[in-house]
Each structure stands twice: as structure tokens, then as C-alpha cells.
Design goal:
By secondary structure, this protein is an alpha/beta fold. The chain has 17 helices and 18 strands. The protein has helices at about 10-25, 40, 85-105, 120-130, 135-145, 150-165, 200-225, 245-255, 275-285, 300-305, 310-325, 340-355, 370-375, 385-400, 430-440, 470-475, 480-495, and strands spanning about 1-5, 30, 45-55, 60-70, 70-80, 170-180, 180, 195, 225-235, 265, 290, 330-335, 360-365, 405-410, 420-425, 445, 450-455, 460-465. Strands 14-15-13-12-11-10-9-6-16 form a nine-stranded mixed sheet, sandwiched between helices. A hairpin with a 4-residue loop joins β17 (about 450-455) and β18. The longest helix is centred in the middle third of the chain and has 24 residues, at about 200-225. The protein is globular and about 70 Å long. The N and C termini lie far apart (about 50 Å). The relative contact order is 0.10.
Length: about 500
């Protein structure tokens, strides 16, 4: 059991996020007991942590304390009072707690005290504030305790992204279309995904509602003079639809948004959902980029994670896509899948090199609350952090040897070794949508069940979100109200911008 007592502040989430970096998914009770009264609690091999803020006219002192029955550690940090005090206080609580637990466990993480999913966004903000690029790595190391290699990686990626996301134009947006159906559910998946065999009766009604949402909202956007830069059809697995359904949807999208976009991606992530007919539909209807995602090229692992295909189908699907004419194909892999070691990863990367895709997206295994793995596997069934860290370093060097460079990066909670997901591509094949959605400088209008529209108000450095209903049946039944809500939010925020 872990108890934390907060003194002179209420930043529980900030402190708890750091604690979970070291203790994993655990319950952290907020305590009222004083440190002097904690001995009986500690006798049961529990952990008692305090976080204290003392604020004067000139400075802030944060003291973090860790106590077990036979051990006590303390870290004390001091900061001046300036700017956004709330932000300064949160930062100091996290930094003090991270330094404390790094001392207790003798372990530092590559992204330091950062728990947010967009570390490169910090680099862009520093660049926007005219901080010299050469100074940024040291600033990241000092402020966030990031390792030097990750600080330099963040700066490298920001430099690649900037020509794509700056200068931003408030009249240029991107589009996301969600297809919440899959051939089957993978063990690690936490996305809105439903077996198309089980939900087959909802597919047609869903498409009718989705296309109505697209037509109505696109008409408003067109009247207001918006231009679409990128379109991304994701899921789920869009190619779980049959070729007729897929063609109707894409034609609706093209008619609604005018086929003027710079990039049009459709995920074809599950090789067991790909046919030559569907590939022809995609290619002939303006899709410029597809993603064929093996996750691993080891059949034993594919069976273990519930993928429903083998490596032979990956190879066949990839070659079919090439024969149809696709010259921009992405492949996803996951590091740290149950039962995999560096040996299996080396095999996967070798097979991918033979196929020679234009980009590879590298994910670090993360146990999501909504995934099957979260319930099925105990902590010991997954890789130790150090193994996954080694896999990531090997993968980075391997993909660089394929003339690929890292072009976007994001993170999630509960990732092994507190690592990252990172996209690599050959020069000229960077996915613009991926960069825009992660760096949040462009409005993304999203359609379908569980889709989240993000309206970026750059003049106020603010984002307004509109969430669609997650449940497919309720989405179908409430399409009209969701359309009205989306239009109301768009109208309101346009007036603010």
C-alpha cells in the first residue's frame, strides 16, 4: 500500500503520476496521518510519501519525503516566484518527487519527469520564444531532467516538423474519419474497435450516419472557406468494410471535401482484411498513403496477441499494394510484445527491410486499461523495462540504416521504460497528418463513433474539443444531435478566432 500526504497544496495528480512511473499501476491513497504517526502503518511493509510546499514572498520550497520502515529519503528543491505560479508549483512538485524516487530506486528515465504525451511540443514553444536551437537540449535536461539523447531527439524531430506545421493557417484543417470495426480484437488494443462479424447488422446504418455527418459538416466548412490539407481514415480497421462499402465512403469523402488535399491516408492495418479489390478501390479513389501493420513478423507472437493473420499474409498484402500502384506504405511494429526478445525483433526488422516500406511507426508496448492484456497478463508476463529500452535503441539504429529519419513522436502512460512511440520515414514520405494531430497547431474535424474534433484557437493558445458518442448503436440513434453539437462548437469557436 502507498499513501501520500500533501501539505500546503493539492497537486495530487502531479505527484501520483511520478509515483506510478516507479510503482506501476497502483492505488495511491491520500493520507491524513502525520509522519510521526506513520510507524504502525510502515510496519506492514507499506510506503509513506509526503509532498510539502512552503511559499514565501520571494521563493517556493518543495520538500518530498519517502519513508519505509527501515529507510527514509528526502529531497528539497527551491524556485523563485515568477510568471504562472500555478504552473511553477506543479512543475516543482513533479520535479521534487521525481528526484526523490530516482534516488530511492537508483533509476532515471529517458524522458525524466515528463509524463505528458507531446514532449516535442515543448521544443516548438521554446523555438517560438526565440530560444537558440543549440541551447534547447541543455534547457530540457535542466528543467525536465531528460536524458541528453532524448533531448537531442526532440530537437531533431521539431526541426523536421516545423516546415510542415508552421506558419499555421487557421483556414487550413485536417479530417479524421473513424471506422470502429475490425476482423477481431487484438489483445493490446484499447481503441474503439468491434468485431465486424458480431456487429455486422450495424455496419450499413453506421455508414449512413457517418456519411450524413460528413456531408452536413463539410458543407458548413466549405461555406466558411476552409481548405483541407490532409484526410485520415482510421479505426478500427477501415478495410474491414467490403469493397462496395469502402468505395461509397471514400466517394462521399471526396465529394464532400473536393479532392484538394495534400495527403489522403487509409489504414489497412490488418492484412487479413486486405484484398486486391479493396486495394484497387483505395488507389482509384485518391488514397495516396496506406498503412499495413504486422506489429511483428513472428507467427507465434501473432497468434498470442490475437492478430488473426500470419506473416505470409503480411508479405502478400504488401506486394499486392505495390502491384496496384501504392508508393507510400507505412508499417507499424510494437516493441515488448509478450514473449518477444531482441531475437524476434531482429527477425521482424529484417523482414521489413526486405519489403522496403516508405515509413515505419515504432510503438512501445503499453498496457491500456481497456485492453485484454491489462486483465490477462500479470506484470511478470511482460518484458522488463531494460529489455524494451535495448530494443528501442536497436530499432532506431536499424531504421536509420534504411535511410529513414524520425519525424514525429508521442508518448502514452504506462509505457515500458517510460519510452515513446516514434515514426520513421524516408525523406519526402513524412505523414503530415501525424505531425499535425500530435503538435496541435491545426484544427482536426473528426467524424464517426468516439471521434474527437479538436478546434485549435491559436490566437488564444487554446483547444476546444467536441466528442462524438462512443457506442455504435447510440451514435446511429443520435447522429442529428451530434451534428448540431459539432456545428454549434465550430460556429462559436470561429467567432472567437
Amino acid at each position: 500500500m502507498i499513501e501520500i500526504r500533501l501539505l500546503n497544496h493539492d497537486y495530487y495528480n502531479e505527484a501520483a503520476d511520478i509515483i506510478r512511473m516507479y510503482f506501476g499501476k497502483c492505488e495511491i491513497l491520500r493520507s491524513e496521518r502525520a509522519l510521526a504517526d506513520s510507524q504502525s502503518f510502515l510496519q506492514d511493509n507499506n510506503v509513506y510519501i509526503t509532498s510539502r510546499l512552503d511559499i514565501t514572498d520571494k521563493n517556493i520550497i518543495c520538500t518530498s519525503t519517502f519513508q519505509e520502515l527501515q529507510r527514509k529519503e528526502e529531497v528539497r528543491l527551491e524556485s523563485g516566484i515568477e510568471g504562472d505560479n500555478n504552473k511553477v508549483l506543479k512543475h516543482l512538485v513533479k520535479k521534487s518527487m521525481y528526484k526523490l524516487l530516482a534516488t530511492v530506486f537508483g533509476k532515471e528515465y529517458p524522458w525524466g519527469m515528463l509524463t505528458g504525451i507531446r514532449p516535442v511540443k515543448i521544443v516548438h514553444e521554446l523555438m517560438n520564444n526565440a530560444v537558440p536551437v543549440t541551447d534547447i537540449p541543455d534547457k530540457l535536461i535542466e528543467e525536465y531532467l531528460i536524458s541528453r539523447d532524448r533531448a537531442e531527439l526532440a530537437v531533431e524531430i521539431a526541426g523536421i516538423e516545423r516546415p510542415f506545421i508552421y506558419p499555421y493557417n487557421n483556414k487550413v484543417i485536417s479530417i479524421y474519419i473513424g471506422i470502429p470495426f475490425c476482423p477481431s480484437r487484438c489483445g493490446y488494443c484499447s481503441f474503439t474497435s468491434n468485431s465486424i462479424n458480431v456487429y455486422r447488422e450495424y455496419v450499413e446504418p453506421y455508414l449512413i450516419s457517418l456519411m450524413e455527418e460528413i456531408r452536413r459538416v463539410s458543407e458548413f466548412l466549405s461555406i466558411k472557406g476552409f481548405r483541407v490539407q490532409t484526410i485520415y481514415i482510421g479505426g478500427g480497421t477501415p478495410t474491414a468494410l467490403n469493397e462496395q462499402q469502402l468505395e461509397r465512403l471514400i466517394k462521399c469523402i471526396n465529394q464532400s471535401f473536393g479532392r484538394q488535399e495534400e495527403e489522403f491516408t487509409c489504414e489497412a492495418g490488418r492484412p487479413d482484411s486486405i484484398t486486391i479489390e479493396k486495394l484497387h478501390v483505395l488507389h482509384e479513389n485518391n488514397i495516396s498513403r496506406i498503412s499495413i501493420n504486422p506489429q511483428t513478423m513472428n507467427d507465434a507472437t501473432l497468434r498470442r496477441i490475437g492478430r488473426g493473420h500470419d506473416t505470409g499474409q503480411v508479405l502478400e498484402s504488401f506486394m499486392l499494394a505495390r502491384s496496384v500502384g501504392f508508393n507510400n506504405i507505412n508499417m507499424d511494429i510494437i516493441l515488448g510484445l509478450p514473449g518477444e526478445t531482441l531475437t524476434e525483433l531482429i527477425h521482424t526488422l529484417g523482414e521489413i527491410k526486405k519489403l522496403d516500406p516508405e515509413s515505419v511507426t515504432v510503438h512501445t508496448m503499453s498496457l491500456k486499461r481497456a485492453s485484454v492484456f491489462n486483465e490477462k497478463y500479470t506484470e511478470g508476463a511482460l518484458h522488463k523495462d531494460e529489455n524494451v529500452s535495448g530494443m528501442m535503441e536497436y530499432t532506431k539504429e536499424f531504421l536509420k540504416s534504411m535511410d529513414m529519419h524520425p519525424y514525429y513522436l508521442y508518448r502514452q502512460k504506462h509505457m515500458a521504460q517510460n519510452l515513446e512511440n516514434i515514426g520513421f520515414s524516408k525523406k519526402g514520405f513524412e505523414c503530415i497528418y501525424n505531425m499535425q494531430i500530435i503538435e496541435e497547431r491545426q484544427t482536426i474535424a473528426a467524424f464517426g463513433a468516439d471521434a474527437v474534433t479538436k478546434i485549435v484557437i491559436n490566437s488564444q493558445n487554446r483547444i476546444e474539443r467536441q466528442h462524438n458518442i462512443k457506442d455504435i448503436k447510440l451514435y446511429i440513434e443520435n447522429t442529428e444531435s451530434m451534428i448540431r453539437k459539432k456545428l454549434d462548437v465550430l460556429k462559436q469557436t470561429l467567432l472567437e478566432e
